[in-house]
Amino acid sequence: MRIRKKVLIVDDDKSRLHNTLDLLESDEIEVVTHTSVFGVTSLVKSMQPYLVLFDINMTLPGDKLASLIHDYCDASDIPVFFCSFNDESSMVESLTGTGSPGYAWKGDPSDIWIKIKRDISQQAKNS
Question: Of the residues 31, 42, 56, 119, which has the fewest C-beta atoms closer than 10 A?
Answer without folding.
Answer: 42
